[in-house]
């Protein structure tokens, strides 16, 4: 989407929100409740914003929530747009660009993911150190606008090292046993086969999910610093002798909610 169209969406939001948010937070499946803790809340539904598609997934509300948390001006995405919903990758860029041109400098992306690393357990939180793009497409394909970012963005430090360190130190302080690892995006909406999960492990993946990578590529392109946190809601297919289902994902993220909330709040406070 060109900058002119992006700014139409931004202008719509700016008419409702009169201050500049500093941090954006994308809340993954089952983790949307953190937005309820925001003070002086202003909600802007995706469907009301020009050019924004709707989010259709259970467990995702589908709105931006602006306001204050830990004394900082923030904007949260309560629900994200997924590639598997059938939107072109390009459309996934718009909410990130809206947050960018509302003024954020840092983005915290969170998601629910399947554990591929056998040392992990459901309920673990994993700081993302890098990713592998197994969607085999990219939201930046198409005409590049140099005003937004370069044609060939460097993603050798996609997940900001200082933010990873900050998250780790806060994990220690709160006594949360944080894992670290590589997130692999598959398109979904099917969960992976056991053979695919094996492949992901052999290729260096620690967790697998259906989101985040497009968000992070767009964020890096437009110059945002990114921190990624996965909630390991289940062991990926074939590791345990049991089928996977979305209700299990939501159930585990609900159980981890209070740890996740204190971790993210403390990160926001110290960022
Ligand atoms: N695979 C892909 N996406 C997921 C999973 C999984 O096992 N769990 C939660 N999101």
Helix content range of the residues, please? 25-40%
Number of strands: 9
Strand content: 15-25%
CATH architecture: 3-Layer(aba) Sandwich
Q: What is the CATH C-level name?
A: Alpha Beta
> Which regions have little confidence, pLDDT < 50, spanning 5+ residues?
none
Radius of gyration: 17 Å
Q: What would you give as the CATH superfamily?
A: Nucleoside phosphorylase domain
What fold name goes in the CATH topology slot? Rossmann fold
**Largest beta-sheet details:** 5 strands, mixed, barrel
**Number of helices, counting only DSSP H or I runs of 4 residues or more:** 6
Q: Which ligands occur here?
A: hypoxanthine
Shape verdict: globular
Protein name: Purine nucleoside phosphorylase
GO molecular function: purine-nucleoside phosphorylase activity
EC number: 2.4.2.1
Family: Belongs to the PNP/MTAP phosphorylase family.
Q: What topology does this entry show?
A:
Blueprint: H1 3-14, E1 23-27, E2 39-45, E3 63-69, E4 72-78, H2 89-102, E5 106-115, E6 125-133, H3 161-173, E7 179-185, H4 194-202, E8 207-209, H5 213-221, E9 225-235, H6 246-270
Parallel strand pairs: 1-4, 1-5, 5-9, 6-7, 7-8
Antiparallel strand pairs: 2-3, 3-4, 5-8, 6-9
